[in-house]
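TA notes. Do not distribute before section.
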Amino acid sequence: MRDDRWTRIEAGWLMDGSGAPPIRDAALLIQGRHIVEMGPAASVHRPGGLVTELLHPAATLLPGLVDPHFHAGYNGHVGMTQLEWPATLEYAAVCAGANAARSLSHGYTGVLDVGCRGQIAVATRDAIDRGVIPGPTMRASGQILASVGGPLDLWPPSFHVDPATRLAVTVTGVDEIVSVIRRQRGTGVDNIKVMVTASTVQATERGSSIAFTDDELRAATRAAHDNGLSAAAHAEGPEGVTAAVMAGFDTIQHASFVDDRTLDILEAHPRSTLVFTLGVYRSIIDRGPSVGYPEPARAHVIARWPEMLAGVLRAYDRGVPFAVGSDCGGAVHPHGLYAQEIVVLVRECGIPVEHAVRAATSTAAIAAGLDGAGRLQPGALADLVLVNGDLSVDPEHLLSRTQIERVLKSGVQVGGTSNDRPV
């Protein structure tokens, strides 16, 4: 049935997600679920009949934000083992529903979950799609594929943890990798995640930084793509990022310390998109002592923070498209701090706000595999957020739910502090 509801929004500033400079005194016209027209307010017509007018002259209008590094089931852990004990799988599932609603309330209308215990992300996605709980449009991963003895093989052999409750499934060899990916496809995932390297805070002093062979990595991406899935790699350091790009991963998550040689290779393999996650490391530096974060790991992040910023700026200065993802959910970087990525890009990298927003909208939508999301343009779904103030002056407003005026998903208000809603 055709939806003929009209909604016209006027805002003090509009960023369309493309990286173009903001439009001052702008308007956007929605019919039903889709955007029809946008531009300077004087140029956007008023259709005849009943039109809901939303006037926000002191707010910035931008596309619904997209988080391509989301963990629905993360909630308050310090260290990875706390994800699996003492928290139960059932507790993590309840937290996932709350986290989905929280992300939506912060203006995130799309996410890519990149790893969960059990099948929590699939269940959360399905509950959102069926209207059981509020949440963003979600693409789901299952358990992270990790190497035996690698960075997510957390427990010694004397500990017997139910494999179904683990964050990761440990694999070795091509056959096991392919078998796990096929099983995950059968459970309904959209994406597979592979732990190609350790994390910045898990610095290794011996052996290769890459946890899988080239053959294993290529087998993972081939099996994912053959089964209609996307493939995400946790990869840090030039060697790990290069290996992930060469293996054909769609997203390179974290991508810390990327160098010029790796960027050369990336430009020759445009299928892969970098997803930087600066915010979580900024939180480790700032909030670590208050939550009991291990000081040696924090000191390691502090020492390498300039290199992280330099890698992002290297990609930006070369014009390499990149997205930003939050990795929220730990005690040091809880759900709700999703937009810290944008703030760090602006405040510490000196990147213009409209380009930082692009990394969290249109490029993030590409990374998340959400076709048509992340842009304000005619024909696109009316996923958008109105934030109080001029974001080019106050990008920090994106961190506060009280500054989020409205969140629309497919033309319907689903969050925000304004009480009058489109009808």
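Switch to the second chain here.
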Amino acid sequence: MKILVTGGAGFIGSALVRRALADGHSVVNVDCLTYAANLESLRSIENHANYVFEQQNICDAEAIDAVFNTHKPDAVLHLAAESHVDRSIDGPEDFITTNIVGTFNLLRTARAYYEKLSTEKQVQFRFHHVSTDEVYGDLDLDDPAFDETTRYNPSSPYSASKAASDHLVRAWGRTYGLPVILTNCSNNYGPFQFPEKLIPVVILKALNRQPIPIYGTGENIRDWLYVDDHADALLTVLQNGRLGETYNIGGKNERTNLDIVQTICAIMDTTIGDGFDHSRLIEFVADRPGHDKRYAINANKIEIELGWTPSLSFDAGFEQTVKWYLANEKWWRPLLNTHQFGQRLGLLTDDLKANT
């Protein structure tokens, strides 16, 4: 297929682009290159014969129309979004614009494009909207995991904007007959993640022997999925999922934030091997507003219907991730300097809080 990927220069998007090309698809990557996007994450495939990059904003209706009309995709995988919870609390405007208005813009263009396709092309076309488990709100420790019928109950401006975009996609499917599929995924981790999220923050703080701040008591629980497994799941759903359906994607790796930080510290103790106990750097800071207690994904539907399960274990995935960051300073150092998250190696600022 020729797949139009929005947000393909981001963390999950770049993993998806690399995987789609490896699987033999053609990719049109549409990304406006906000702070969290990085074309260096796509350096290995930038000259691939089946890859095209378009620097466009999904909120620019005219530009998106031109992309569809020029490249004539067989499917859309929509990942472009503002996604950092703390940023949404401090400034929700960008989240409303990108996640809601941008998604509406894509749906409007995709519908007009779809209606002009031949019957054969219409049968093949898919609009796959990629969302988050955060739209479901949070869980108590003894609550069952989120499934595809769980009531939406978003807590932050970020998750509320994603919930709104999910509803728009379903409405375009039901009202206009656009062939849509949705996925809601748990927390991702792995190489090429922008250094404001929990995993890279902890690694870089530990590497520079700075205090590792954890919100509250660190007992907030998330389900963790390796990013390449998520990319595999997205392509599986795109090709084999039932139209109009939602599929939850999870890693079956529920861990507290404190567990995650301690795991990373232990890996660094072993990898660096200089006798320093990195867990000594852990410190607890005031919790953030509306901090969800627990996320957990029931991924039975995608496993039973489509035969997908994650391939990488928690231990193997986190070890690979830590070692990747230690070996790829040339990727993350420019980000710290450019975006003022650090002043040269070892001078990270308070903007790098260990949160999810």
